[in-house]
Amino acid sequence: MRAMLTGAAIGVVLGGLAVGVSSFAWPDAQPVDSRAETYRQLDLFAEVLARARADYVTEIDEKEAMEAAINGMLGSLDPHSSYMSAEDFEAMQVQTSGQYGGLGIEVTMEDGFVKVVTPMDDTPASRAGLESGDLLTAINGKPIVGLNIDDAVRDMRGEPGTEIIVTVLREGEDAFDVTLEREVIRPKSVTWKALDDDIAYFRISTFNERTTELLEEAISEVSREIGGRPAGIVLDLRNNGGGLLDQAISVSDKFLSGGEVVSTIGRRPGDIARYNARKGEVFKNVPMVVLINNGSASASEIVAGALQDRDRATVLGMTSFGKGSVQTVIPLGTDRGAMRLTTSRYYTPAGRSIQATGIEPDMEVAQARVTEDELDRIRRFSEADLPHALTNEDGVERQIPKLPDDQPPEDYDGEDYQLDRAIQTLHGGLLTAKETAQPG
Q1: At residue 153, does pLDDT exceed 80?
Q2: What is the value of pTM for the model shown?
């Protein structure tokens, strides 16, 4: 079984070059045999392993060394391809099922450190104050440099109730330690509430196997509380690091009636798949706002892009992360783990690739007042800044962020400025410092 996550061979032939100088001619260049070159490289690898096994200062763990070599090869392709040991593969299956043990944090690797993409709602990571863009440099005093992403994640997991200390490097601050207590993470990927008595608010924190099911329950519950159709809908995808492709499609389907949601294109001309919504949608013609920020990635960008391109929703917030690739998880057999391989790019209904560029909001609204220094930090937290990141095949580059025109007033005392602006947009009003009200 393969799980899809939200990630033409070019032959170069040097022909013979003949230059007539009297009776002399260059000999024909021999065609390169790619298979023979691959075998030579494998021989080189075997020799390096044999020498390390025989001469390294201490005895090496050959299995661990081989896994590290495989992971290094895959990691050199792009930031999202990797090897998973049997234990890591099992942990990934548990995580996408909607329950796992750990800290509740979406991470990636950058410059040898673990970078926080987003802390999940109501988890040890979020309660401890970890933020998107934080770099984790050590776990229980052990430096992370030299570990791959799977090793680092494994070190952060453990028995519920046990403590872990992570060293955090945050822009503009000295490194500091944070103590967290591990717990069983059962993220409720969908939460809801009624705002202003007539606005249906849905928060999706991740896309796991239960997300669409939980959204359906939330839709029924908010309808009962409001007493029918809402006056407006807010779909909050901020700091949603992504997840399963099929869940992104089925969530989009709830708010669309027919038509394309997303398409994926792989390496070969025939590797094209188009995914369409079914007829019928919930709360048809009810105005809708989708909230995003630079922590919104992958599957959440698929949803935001679909609803934006299909003119179903106004997208409000800050430009998203920009992960426009699809990963396929390929099992490698009993006790051999699996590989996570980027196999395609995805495109919004309008044919846009958002790889390395992100979804740009229709209304750019900052959550907090942004200085030039903070803007520089935001600028450097995106897919485009990850090592070996795929470029945008259309040649489009991520827009350099500027200070947003719409920022909280200096005397703003609300809790969530972007949400306040969403509500005002749905009500057709303009937010002023005097009109600001805290969401219920």
Answers
A1: yes
A2: 0.75
